[in-house]
Design goal:
The structure is a homodimer. By secondary structure, the first copy, chain A, is an alpha/beta fold. The first copy, chain A, is about 50% helix and about 15% strand. Chain A contains 14 helices and nine strands. Chain A has a six-stranded parallel sheet, sandwiched between helices. The first copy, chain A, has a three-stranded mixed sheet with strand order 7-8-9. The relative contact order of chain A is 0.09. The interface between A and B is large, with 72 and 72 residues.
Chain lengths: ~300, ~300
Amino acid sequence: MTTAPLKIGFIGLGIMGAPMAGHLLKAGHQLYVYTHGKVPEAIATSTATQCLDAKGVAQRADIIITMVPDTPDVAEALFGDTGVAKGLTAGKVVVDMSSISPVDTKQFARKIEALGCDYLDAPVSGGDVGARNAALSIMVGGKAEVFERIRPVFELMGKNITRVGGHGDGQTCKVANQIVVALTINAVAEGLLFAAKAGADPAKVRSALMGGLATSRILDILGERMINRCFDPGFRIALHQKDLNLALGAARSLGLALPATSNAQQLFSACVAQGGGAWDHSGMVRALERLSNFEIGQAAN
Amino acid sequence: MTTAPLKIGFIGLGIMGAPMAGHLLKAGHQLYVYTHGKVPEAIATSTATQCLDAKGVAQRADIIITMVPDTPDVAEALFGDTGVAKGLTAGKVVVDMSSISPVDTKQFARKIEALGCDYLDAPVSGGDVGARNAALSIMVGGKAEVFERIRPVFELMGKNITRVGGHGDGQTCKVANQIVVALTINAVAEGLLFAAKAGADPAKVRSALMGGLATSRILDILGERMINRCFDPGFRIALHQKDLNLALGAARSLGLALPATSNAQQLFSACVAQGGGAWDHSGMVRALERLSNFEIGQAAN
């Protein structure tokens, strides 16, 4: 690191947060951490300062990152009795890297700014592999000058870092991403299942479609998983369900109808009913297969 | 052309068939043509022989290509009172390049083979631009040796030429392509519409999504059309509706449920209700916009 060490707070040291915090430590920054449950060994034995609560983190650090599972967890971490807001003083920056509601995010940002602090929403994609390899995509909402100030910190954790717009726009972008991904999985699943049921070789159909207008990274990578019956995650259906729940909840509060998103969520629920919450999201095809009592790879008649 | 001229029949000289037949003429082949209505000027004034009916074409040509709108049109051209079957003698090849039912195609192939002839289904994608530029993708079903025999003829009309499998598999591949394309359009439309309604800039969201798992040619090209409000075809909604009708009809006869395909067809119908049958298929977004009384590009509140 060429710049002086920063005082960075990190709240939430789960499967994503722990490796992300690790990259900040490795870069020489002073970390102040708090997590529900036990602090992971690698961080407990590092130079990081363990705090009793989120308030304690906010009192000591200048930049406070949250990386927790869902909207209520961020609300609790920021505005609970022992939350970040209780420990903030003017001039600090709160950076929420969790994937949560874009609508609630706008309220959170207003409340943090009312304390004389700055706020960025900066959800990520790329999963635990991206977190470990410091290769996350980071989609940021908030003021441009605050984004530029925090950018060097983002660059320690990710590669494709975009400021999408103002408060909430990072979360909105993440939700839009998850909508497009889920529905493109549905597209590939119905197309390949049709081909197989009609008696064609789905692998040859997938190859013939690549290169044309139907081409997508999902046809390429997840289409191959559907054909090869490889449903180890990858990205778990239970997590994608959480993201579509954000999409549908936000859409409801915005007054927006998303019929195909709603349908895709039902297919994920059908997977969970088959015990598939931990399948890779390409496993959505199994809900369609169950519906028609036919599997890709089965001989059609 | 380095090989001897072939005697090729061409039935159906519409917006697709006329330029395709033109490429065969240009290559020096002897053409025997028949079409409903008037033979286009360029072909009428060429060396092509105009026949009174499809039977007359089949009597004179060794390879008989059909390029007509829909399944009943192929049935009529092949098996009508003055159809191809009435004029065939053993050893000839029937090549149906129309986009029609894969289920009916298998029957057509059996009936043509019973006459001692060969049959290929060889639907195309790429539209009238692809037809004019001899750049069509051609998806072929039928015997490998017949495919190899006809391949030089396909190469005069297309670029990406794939034998997918046996009889009907070319049509199956084309239908699968149209399913994947329609549902990926739906994916991009719901994702960008969500982003816009939540107050983010859909163009920035589209850029942020490109390069990640959500990447597709449709996000790239048709996503841009949705943002720029450019709905001139391209590929018309009315034609895509015909293709999804094939998908849903075949799925019904195969005993296969395609919930998202069914939903996409309803969105196309909603476009037609707005007078949008001639819009580019990216115009599907307008049905979703009408549903929620909000347009991409409109300021969100």
